[in-house]
What does this fold into?
Amino acid sequence: MAAGLKDMPERALSAQLQATFSASKADPVRLAAFERFQKTGLPHRRVEGWRWSDLNAALRDFVPANDGVSPIPPSKFSALDPVEIQIVNGRIIRPTGTLPAGLHLDVIPASATIPDLEGNSVVSLTVAMITEALEIRVDAGVKLGQPILVRHIMQCGTMAFVQVAAHLGDGAEATIIETYEDIGAGQGGFYSSLFHSDICAGATLKRRMLQNTNADAVVHAMFAANLAGGAHLNQVGLSTGGRLSRHETLAQYVGSEASAELSSAALVDASRHADFTSKILHAASGCQTRQIHKGVARDKGRAVFQGKFDVQRVAQQTDAQMSADALLLSDTSEAYHKPELEIYADDVQCAHGSTSGALDDDAMFYLRQRGLDEEMARSLLIEAFLGEVIDNLEEGEAPVFRDAIALWLKGQGA
Amino acid sequence: MLKIDNLHARVEGDAGVVEILKGLSLGVPAGEVHAIMGPNGSGKSTLSHIIAGRDDYEVTAGSVNLSGEEILDLDPNERAAKGVFLSFQHPMEIPGVATMNFIRTALNAQRKARGEAEVSAADFLRLIREKTKLVGLTDEKLKRPFNVGFSGGEKKRMEMLQMAIFEPRFCIMDETDSGLDIDALKMVGDVVNSLRGPDRGFLVITHYQRLLEHIRPDHVHVLAGGRIVKSGGPELAAELEKSGYDQFIEAA
It folds into this structure.
């Protein structure tokens, strides 16, 4: 049913993928991944889980440009004094200078750390195309004060594939901020990243993700996490979308008493699209998941949320809650929410809820009666709608996200 | 100061178009407090919302004039900047909106629209502390999202807090007394009496005479069937308390 590479020989993209792959010396793992990708091609709307995010269509006319060089502006997170790693068009640039004690950054051969995500053909493609990966290791017991900033930077119009692997030892604590940005004057681009992490016993990973790219950019970011006993994942993501953007989280509790707080926001205007898809696999007892998602769409923007809690038979005393709310600011904007529970254990507390609606007329009138003009009142209510997501950020991180929201509200999202 | 002339208004609901105001005329000179009393469904809240600029109602005839200026074509925020304040009968809870930030933003938006300088953060803090004490709210309440988890009485105190801070030229109080205990009623009276002055007018909408013992009105009007059917001095309120509204429902 899928349009495999062989079925679309006319495409510039497929020719380039084939050429890029052939030029590198592929090991068996990458070869197998490329074969898997070739069988199915890019996911499209008739593939389960991709109904509202047709990656194949988004890249139909995409012709990858040669990558160029443009100056890279300082990160909006610079004020946090992060350990900064730039990945420019897929090339990993390690920071100069001394790293904090207990933190190790290395560039390693990619195939050494590839996780098993064979069902996803974009992941297969990414695995096939990359030759090296960024490895972040935090030693057991080390609590990093400085955040690690991974900047995914694409030259507009180029194509890039990236892999990051993180390992947090027992009891370690770290914050990893990822930004998806673009440089250069062009439009478009295709960027696919694969981030796999192991969060060992009692360790805490705080992941922040902010995507702010051009309106024609296509971004696919897969984040996978294995949580050992007592481990904790705290994640906040915000995307203003692109021609298509998909941020996928695949978390797995392999040890008991682990927990995750996941919050995300999609802000889409013009004809932009932003998809947050997640699957949390509860495969150990006593784990707790809290997930909130907020989608705001105006113009012809499309916000997608697909969240799934999978609770296996062994995962007794699971406590998992999910909520997804959409705010539609125009008649032509769209939000698609698909919350799902699949539960095989009997002693669990699981709940999900989803709402969608327009701005509240009564609240608008109240604010305007107090002197706020229409735009101010609207902005205040949208910021309030997104408040729960921002509340999960640390001091210092929140202003950067708030600025991104404020820019979007002014129609200058990217 | 406020002059309403032959106001007709209707609303389109599930049951079709309903005429609510049917030729209402009313004048509140500067420096005076007027009370509007009347049975349920007589159009009291509609009147307050139309003066404040809610666009759910269609004004089909008449005018509303504030200090010589027609205001029916102005946006709600423009009316607010000109000094129209509505104390809501059912104040909103607005989750996620920080109370102090909102009130300061609103105050400065009004001032900016009038060409006045913004109030500094320090001056605002001083002002809100002082007025918070006056209306009997705790500082802790100011740190909560706007009205979230507040009791009915606390929400009314929050309305009075904003009225005390904005110092509007014309205050409309839509059943501010409903759901208030004796102490809170006295507080409302204190806020109104502290604001009373030659340049300010009040329109106090109420069902009961209780509040009018704390706020002595200059005139009392009875609104029934979309029109003012009787006007008089403060003694009219006491009379209504005894005789009820039935006579007016029939008359209307």
Observations:
- The interface with chain B takes residues 360-363, 365-374, 376-377, 380-381, 383-388 of chain A (CB under 8 Å).
